[in-house]
Design brief:
By secondary structure, the chain is of the alpha/beta class. It has 17 helices and 16 strands.
């Protein structure tokens, strides 16, 4: 008789967990409280027909190389990746933007005296990106599948990003391009291991790229759903689960939920010790997001920036370090670090002809209620004079609005919990079995488990593998 499984939460991790189990003969049912599956990987027509916006993630260096997505072969279910000329650009005041090419040598050449150091830092990842993704998309406390690659990465990841930039680079361009990638950690850039984020994001961009999904990030979800449907997985939307005892019997249950939602869920039977650690879980800074419909491309001072998929709008190396330091202190910078995506420059499906769909978000402190949208506008206008004149429509989403849209985004935290301190290693509790709750048959598969945030499905993949191992042992 086949085993049975229930997955609660239909974000990328929940759907990937369902796919892993279904491919191995488990009967799987998925429950999702929203009317649409996808979690933070949903796409919406917020400004009417013909306008497609990624409400959450837009550029996907992890998705295109995800071991789970590659094994599921989502491209055979309609997913198409589209690549910009440059994965990333970083504008600077009074000079040309710094550009990340999908080529290590081309990127390094623009840095002159820093070219060799740039190649040393990013070369190992750019040469073996799939090995490094296999290493970093599982628990850190394990024997990695590629130990030598992990050792090379570890040597580059240990130091704070600000320290690495100062030690390795002499040019402002190299420092700024590296520190912007490191800021994806949403940690103060003097924090240990933040160099790993800079090296990894940069290395992936210079090899696999930072592509967008043609037609929106929701197409990744659509491909997953087609895969699941073909395997007989049942998906129930508009179905909020508040008590596990009300569900049909199943051999395993996987929760695509963060600690706050798990604690509210009845019938889990988790131990007091496990609940204690869940209550101590710290959520990180939030984001404040703005979607824009423009009557043309952003008028960047350096016109090449139009051809970048992602733009880090934060100014100099010192400014980015300072704004992220303010973030760690609970202070909102007057010039916040802004991440901007402009997918419509390569994907004509995103907006009517001649128009462009853009989104941008700023990192904001925990509990921030300030109207950050005007600061985001000002940061873009700073490097693209006339930007405001191009705006046909805009929509703001505060951290509170993001949490209302997706309850896993507690306080606007898009990472499932802070990476400060030991939470970078132990997610969500101090254990060598991060997906197990201690209750037989009950597992966690959200971004609050390794490897954390991102549209890659690997938390779900790893949790499902742990569940299947336990079923085999049983």
């Amino acid at each position: 008789m086949a085993h049975s499984a229930i997955v609660i939460g239909a974000g990328p991790n929940g759907l990937t967990a369902a796919a892993f189990l279904a491919r191995r003969g488990v009967n799987v049912t998925v429950y999702e409280q929203a009317s649409q599956v996808g979690g933070s990987a949903r796409t919406d027509t917020i400004f009417g027909a013909g306008t497609i916006s990624d409400v959450g993630a837009a550029a996907h260096p992890f998705a295109v190389g995800s071991p789970a997505f590659r094994e599921l072969d989502l491209e055979s279910h309609g997913l198409k990746w589209v690549f910009h000329r440059y994965p990333l650009a970083h504008p600077l005041d009074g000079r040309d933007s710094v550009l990340l090419h999908q080529d290590l040598q081309l990127t390094a050449e623009q840095f002159g005296v820093d070219a060799a150091a740039w190649r040393w830092l990013h070369g190992p990842i750019s040469s073996h990106p799939l090995q490094d993704l296999s290493n970093v998309t599982g628990p850190l406390l394990r024997i990695p599948p590629h130990p030598l690659s992990m050792a090379r990465f570890g040597a580059r990841a240990l130091l704070p990003a600000a320290t690495t930039a100062r030690l390795l680079f002499r040019t402002e361009g190299a420092k700024a391009l590296f520190i912007g990638s490191a800021a994806h950690s949403m940690l103060p850039l003097g924090h240990l291991f933040t160099s790993g984020f800079g090296a990894l994001f940069g290395g992936l961009g210079q090899s696999l790229g930072w592509p967008v999904a043609r037609g929106g990030t929701g197409e990744i979800i659509n491909a997953l759903v087609l895969r699941l449907t073909a395997m007989g997985v049942q998906i129930h939307t508009n179905n909020a689960v508040t008590d596990l005892r009300e569900l049909p019997a199943a051999d395993v249950v996987l929760l695509d939920l963060t600690p706050a939602q798990i604690l509210r869920l009845r019938g889990t039977n988790i131990s007091r010790r496990y609940a204690y650690f869940l209550r101590r879980w710290k959520y990180g800074p939030g984001v404040f997001k703005v979607d824009y419909l423009l009557d043309g491309p952003i008028p960047w001072q350096d016109e090449r920036t139009v051809h970048a998929g992602t733009v880090h709008v934060g100014g100099s190396f010192a400014e980015v370090v300072e704004s992220e330091r303010d973030l760690g202190r609970g202070k909102l910078s007057s010039t916040p670090f802004v991440m901007l995506a402009q997918p419509s420059s390569v994907d004509p499906l995103r907006a009517p002809k001649g128009q462009h769909m853009i989104w941008a978000y700023a990192h904001v402190p925990v509990g921030c209620t300030a109207p950050v949208g005007t600061l985001i506008d000002a940061q873009i206008e700073r490097f693209a004079p006339g930007f405001r004149d191009r705006i046909l429509a805009r929509r703001e989403m505060s951290p509170q609005a993001l949490e209302s849209w997706n309850p896993n985004l507690v306080g606007g935290d898009i990472g499932g919990g802070s990476l400060r301190g030991m939470q970078q290693v132990f997610r969500p509790t101090p254990t060598l079995r991060p997906y197990n709750t201690g209750v037989p048959g009950l597992y966690v598969c959200s971004s609050s488990t390794p490897p954390g945030a991102g549209v890659h499905g690997m938390a779900g993949w790893n949790a499902a593998a742990a569940a299947l191992r336990d079923l085999g042992a049983a």
